[in-house]
Amino acid sequence: MSTQESDSTPNDNNQKVDYDPTKIDKEQLKGAPKALLRFLRDILSIKDEVDQAATVEIIKSNIVFRGANVWVLICSIIVACIGLNNDSTAVIIGAMLISPLMGPIRGMGLAIGTNDFKTLISSLLNFGVMVGISFVVAWLYFLVSPIKTATPELQSRVHPQALDVLIGFFGGLAGIIASATGDRSTVVPGVAIATALMPPMCTAAYGLAVGEPAFFFGALYLFLLNTVFICLSTVLTVRYLSFPLMKFVNPKTERKVKLYSFIVLLGIVVPSIWFFMKLVRENQFEESVKNFVKQEINYDEFFSNVELDEFEYETDTGIIYLKVISGYIEDLQIDLWQSKAHQYDKLKNTGIVLRNNKKPEKIELNGFISTEMYNDQKKTRQQLEASSKILRSTLFKYESSEIDSEQLARLLKVNYESLIDSIECGPMYINNLHDSIDTASRYIVYWNPSLADSIVNNNRGNLERHIILNMESKNSKFLHINNYGEK
Predict the structure, then answer these.
(1) What are the tens digits of pLDDT across the range 126-141?
(2) Contact residues for 195 (Cβ-Cβ < 8 A; gap 6+)
(3) How far apart are CA 244 and CA 88, in angstroms?
(4) CB-based burial of residue 52 (10 Å sphere; 0-12 exposed, 13-18 middle, 19+ buried)?
(5) pLDDT tens per residue across span 384-420
(6) Given CA atoms 182, 185, 190, 193 in this order, what sign does their dihedral have?
(7) Between 198-210 and 213-240, two packed helices, what is the crossing angle to 10 degrees?
């Protein structure tokens, strides 16, 4: 016997009941937002996967630098120096993969996050040992290396960028999450590549070995930035995952440890914020400098001999150094560039300095500019300046001949409101046909048609004197229209 199939689901007694999966349940719809939040929380939460005891044990075991760890570090440092020397990214990545630099830094973060002062001291000591060994080995390598050229890989570690800070933070965050959840297969090597602690340290040693302070301080700054933000990410993760705090029998000792840990944490967080904001401002300034040079200088083929050399930035002031490859740039042009730079929001207090800007004293056949060209340019500039003075003088005369209509209206309203119907005014130019042009203020007065001629004649002189005195119009011409429309 056949049975008709229908949408149904079995219950506990293997009996079929009617069930429509396409039907929307209103009660379920009301609870959808909460269900979505629970779903997202289940996806993003890692607390259930954390083995706190195993994580603490692993981090502490990687803090101490002795024996094999030291020799692995030395080998990785030499490999990294070779990669920097040969400008080989692949070699540098290989060095970072075998480098054990992360151990003491992660140990500091764990110690601060759990109030483990003993582990903090141990991590700081081993961090000092790690930095000392790495720096000495890299310094000795670059000291004896016959290749002293500053390759692009070395130069890229001199000026930290704001994004380098984020790389350090999120790289360290990925590392501690991987360690806490037991996934240490591929993430930890990836973190070593991302945070890039070793190349900046080797670059700092290069700067000291070849006598380049900019390389030394810039790369050391980048290394310390990455260190601070890796440590900070570890502290935040340990706190978030609720790792157990160190307990002490003596409450006084516990308070002291908590205070010291808080001071160290504050010493990490405050400089981190300050460093980040400083880098953001420097990067914004650098971007404005590059845009200025591109849009205001290099866009013109005539100034293709000028290029950006370097720049200095300190708080809200800076200096742009431009290098003149050949030829000579006039002071007037430099002043023009300076005024244009001040129109950029980040360059308002920035000066411009030209290097190698030598004024030509004789004809140079192979130079960018000859003496004849320079003299022609100077003559043209003088002519332009003379024309500019004439135009400014003419403009001043025109502006001085303009009449303040509002002031004139107030004057007439007080003294002549019932006598004058209207008045026209404006500048007038007088040409005596002998190449002489003068300006005057012209007034056309329309008297009230209802006034007698005698009243108009009696008030003409007073009106003219009032206008001359109050409007400061020494050279004024008046035209009166009487009540019959006659002059």
Answers:
(1) 889 888 998 999 999 9
(2) 102, 167, 168, 171, 172, 175, 226, 230
(3) 44
(4) middle
(5) 666 666 666 666 655 555 667 777 788 787 778 888 8
(6) positive
(7) 160
